[in-house]
Amino acid sequence: MVERGLVDELCQFKKELSKMTGTDNFNLDFTKGVLQCIGLKQFQQYLELPVDGRDTEAGRKCLEDALVAMKYMTKKYARRQIRWINNRFLKPNDKQAVSVYRLDCTDLGEWKRLSDRAVDLAQVVLGRKPRSEHTLEPIDVSDQKTVLPVYGDYYCDDCSRPFSNDIQYNIHMGSKKHVKVMMKRKRKLQDTTLHCDSGNEKKLYSHKKT
């Protein structure tokens, strides 16, 4: 990424952002939009240096620290992503997971052909075109019969989370995370009810001095 011009791209991003905001001094929210990408937050201190200060010893040290931080976060994200994929899709268990398809994208020279095949598969899964002899078949990851998900708009009001199909929605509704949110809401409701009852009791027994 660095050899392909990552640092120059980040510097250009900072330049364009300054042009849009009209100032070099702004607070960035790294929890929204493109700013969540690994490789932006880690370079914040380096990008805040003046242009003529980036080629100094302090600037080069700042860049080196940013690269180390980016590598660390990339490896951490990759480990978390692999763990999530294994647990969510590939680990045989009693849960009914969505269909999983294997598409080898190692050779970037084949990217156009592979991306076209992925789009074709997505259209088949979504029911927008019929399955053909070239359509990928789902891989067998468990002893359960593969059931295709029903796509649509599913939403958990308690957790404020949207889902694209019924299987993901049903798994979420039975998850520990959802139950935890429900318990938290229940306790909050009970505390609010007790507080209101306590306030009503005080009003009932209050009286004016004569």
From TrEMBL:
<dbReference type="GO" id="GO:0006400">
    <property type="term" value="P:tRNA modification"/>
</dbReference>
<dbReference type="InterPro" id="IPR022755">
    <property type="entry name" value="Znf_C2H2_jaz"/>
</dbReference>
<keyword id="KW-0479">Metal-binding</keyword>
<comment type="similarity">
    <text>Belongs to the IPP transferase family.</text>
</comment>
<keyword id="KW-0862">Zinc</keyword>
<dbReference type="Pfam" id="PF12171">
    <property type="entry name" value="zf-C2H2_jaz"/>
</dbReference>
<dbReference type="InterPro" id="IPR013087">
    <property type="entry name" value="Znf_C2H2_type"/>
</dbReference>
<feature type="domain" description="C2H2-type">
    <location>
        <begin position="156"/>
        <end position="178"/>
    </location>
</feature>
<dbReference type="GO" id="GO:0005739">
    <property type="term" value="C:mitochondrion"/>
</dbReference>
<dbReference type="GO" id="GO:0005524">
    <property type="term" value="F:ATP binding"/>
</dbReference>
<keyword id="KW-0547">Nucleotide-binding</keyword>
<dbReference type="GO" id="GO:0008270">
    <property type="term" value="F:zinc ion binding"/>
</dbReference>
<dbReference type="GO" id="GO:0052381">
    <property type="term" value="F:tRNA dimethylallyltransferase activity"/>
</dbReference>
<dbReference type="InterPro" id="IPR036236">
    <property type="entry name" value="Znf_C2H2_sf"/>
</dbReference>
<keyword id="KW-0067">ATP-binding</keyword>
<keyword id="KW-0863">Zinc-finger</keyword>
<dbReference type="Pfam" id="PF01715">
    <property type="entry name" value="IPPT"/>
</dbReference>
<protein>
    <recommendedName>
        <fullName>C2H2-type domain-containing protein</fullName>
    </recommendedName>
</protein>
<keyword id="KW-0808">Transferase</keyword>
<dbReference type="InterPro" id="IPR027417">
    <property type="entry name" value="P-loop_NTPase"/>
</dbReference>
<dbReference type="InterPro" id="IPR039657">
    <property type="entry name" value="Dimethylallyltransferase"/>
</dbReference>
